[in-house]
Design brief:
CATH superfamily of chain B: Amidase signature (AS) domain
Largest interface: A-B, 52 and 78 residues
CATH class of chain B: Alpha Beta
Shape of chain A: flat
Helix content of chain A: 25-40%
Largest sheet of chain B: 11 strands, mixed
Radius of gyration of chain B: 21 Å
Number of strands of chain A: 2
Number of helices of chain B: 16
CATH topology of chain B: Amidase signature (AS) enzymes
Shape of chain B: globular
Oligomer: heterodimer
Structural class of chain B: alpha/beta
Chain lengths: 96, 486
């Protein structure tokens, strides 16, 4: 297991797409350092030959019939959009 | 008889059926009570009295026409503000969703409505259900009705506090690491987390999808059984919903009489357990022995790794689930952003509170390139061991008895360190990792008058046994009939 000091807060905040203030960076790095130091104890568990559990009651696959069903009306689907026009969500230009 | 707003659903249902009480009268009593105490308890993010009264009126009309839908018809049931109710706000107690209105009903909401219940209010929680005290809400800190300077527990603190204060007759919460059971223990009500897959998660805002379950809060085990019966069952809209027969939980309470073999895990009674909590739980164990149950010491040797395992798996899943809050399609959009990528960074910075940011960052880290095997994969393997511990114990016993929380309700502001708060979840978290059903029932008070909860952990999908075991204790005690003075 890597060392808790490996946490590069700038890199991880970038991956998470969250703009952190300098104060948040300092505070979170310290607090998460404590949490990661606590998590270190998992290193001591013997996991040789143990299968991972993704969730507790494995349902391997679930199939749904491929049929059209009524969905949300456009108006309802767009009701919570921060900005909309002509039944579309408005965003800043993404291509020049 | 206690006031209407302190009576169990089962008693109210009898009065409604006998036409000694109307649903409108009941709703009016609950609204009046809410208006009287809510400024002190602060359990609700919002409520819609006009909508609730209209639904109560419809319930009375059904009953008058001989078309009552059963014991929940006309009963005000409060919902944690992560469960969708069409046309009502859905905030997750986050600035990110401050103005969001649900476009559809969650499956549990649909089922409650089909049972005639009046969906009442949006109940406060730790933002996106991340926390153990309801202090992480972006809007307000709910108070514990038993001591307003203390927390109600969390994350479903509003659901527990509203019920204890008489502001609803039953409520729903969600439980990812103890978020129903711990607030139930802190507020002297019954709270139950069903087996993973028993209740549909469709329409529940996701925190950690492999751990989240919706479950009921009730004044009595019977009330929890009534509500669970209404919301349980397979749902094609949730791919992890389990196909299993749903028994009549309420009817089974008196049919299943034991005596049961009950396990007491030695790892749950060590350092960190408050002596008054320990003594109350020990007295409950002794009571079961008196009922003729065999009490057996069992071992859950990987208990000490549960919190570390949880905070890897839950944060990993949350970092993925909360990626959807990007300021584009719904939720908060920053006015600061200049381009599309900037919208993500600033909307998430402004929309999320500190604990949510911390968990997203931790989860992103444990999933990031080079760290996945060391953290996430290892945690999933330890999860297997934790689950095997429980299944091994169930070869010898029918259920497991433990404290719900190592301590009673703590003071608002007392736990400022995130890790110290995480460690309080030690007795509840293993149940989620193993996918088991667990309930907390009132089992006493501290000398200072704070409620104490007994946790009963059942076999997978054996909720009927779990509830019957809880009911057997409740029948011999009156803790649950005590109400806070507000």
């Amino acid at each position: 297991m890597p060392s808790p000091t490996d946490l590069n807060i700038d890199h991880v905040a970038h991956l998470a797409r969250i703009a952190l203030t300098p104060e948040e960076k300092t505070q979170f790095a310290a607090q998460l350092g404590d949490v990661l130091a606590y998590i270190e104890q998992l290193k001591t568990v013997d996991i040789a030959g143990i299968e991972p559990t993704a969730h507790a009651f494995p349902i391997y696959n679930v199939w749904a019939d491929d049929v059209a069903r009524p969905g949300l009306p456009v108006e309802a689907a767009l009701r919570n959009a921060p900005a909309q026009r002509d039944n579309m969500i408005v965003v800043p230009k993404v291509v020049e | 008889m206690p006031e209407l707003f302190h009576q169990p659903v089962a008693a109210l249902a009898d009065q409604l059926a006998a036409k000694k009480l109307s649903a409108v009268e009941l709703m009016q009593a609950v609204i009046a009570r809410t208006e009287a105490v809510e400024s002190r308890v602060k359990a609700f993010n919002s409520f819609d009295a006009a909508d609730a009264l209209a639904r109560a009126r419809a319930s009375d009309e059904r009953r008058a026409a001989g078309q009552s839908r059963g014991p929940l018809d006309g009963i005000p049931v409060g919902l944690k503000d992560v469960i969708s109710v069409a046309g009502q706000p859905l905030t997750a107690s986050s600035k990110m969703l401050a103005n969001f209105v649900s476009p559809y009903d969650a499956t549990v909401t649909r089922k409650l409505k089909e049972a005639g219940a009046v969906c009442w209010g949006r109940l406060n929680l730790d933002e996106f259900a991340m926390g153990s005290s309801t202090e992480n809400s972006a809007f307000k800190t709910t108070s514990n009705p038993w001591d307003l300077a203390r927390v109600p527990g969390g994350s479903s603190g509003g659901s527990a506090a509203a019920l204890a204060a008489g502001e609803a007759c039953a409520t729903l919460g969600s439980d990812t690491g103890g978020s129903i059971r711990q607030p139930a223990a802190f507020c002297n009500v019954v709270g139950m987390k069903p087996s993973y897959g028993l209740v549909s998660r469709y329409g529940l805002i996701a925190y950690a999808s492999s751990l989240d379950q919706i479950g009921p809060f009730g004044r009595t085990v019977e009330d929890a059984a009534i509500v669970l019966g209404a919301i349980a069952g397979h749902d094609p809209l949730d791919s992890t919903s389990f196909k299993t027969e749903i028994p009549d939980y309420r009817a089974e309470l008196s049919k299943r009489r034991g005596p049961w073999k009950l396990g007491v895990p030695k790892e749950y009674f060590g350092a960190g357990l408050d002596p008054e909590v320990g003594a109350a739980v020990q007295a409950a164990i002794d009571y079961y022995r008196k009922l003729g149950c065999e009490i057996k010491e069992v071992s859950l040797p990987h208990t000490q790794y549960a919190i570390a395992t949880y905070y890897i798996i839950a944060t990993a899943e949350c970092s993925s689930n909360l990626a959807r809050f990007d300021g584009i399609r719904y939720g908060h959009r920053s006015a600061k952003a200049n381009d599309a990528i900037d919208i993500y960074f600033h909307s998430r910075a402004e929309g999320f509170g500190a604990e949510v940011k911390r968990r997203i960052i931790l989860g992103t880290y444990v999933l990031s390139s080079g760290y996945y095997d060391a953290y996430y994969l290892r945690a999933q393997k330890v999860r297997t061991l934790i689950r095997q511990d429980f299944l091994n114990a169930y070869r010898e016993v029918d259920a497991i008895l433990t404290p719900t929380s190592p301590v009673p309700a703590f003071k608002i502001g007392e736990k400022s360190d995130p890790l110290a708060m995480y460690l309080l979840d030690i007795y509840t978290i293993g149940v989620n990792l193993a996918g088991l059903p667990g309930a907390s029932i009132p089992c006493g008070f501290t000398r200072g008058g704070l409620p104490i909860g007994l946790q009963i952990i059942g076999r997978p999908f054996q909720e009927a046994d779990l509830l019957a075991i809880a009911h057997a204790y409740e029948q011999g005690h009156a803790w649950h009939t005590q109400h806070p003075k507000l």
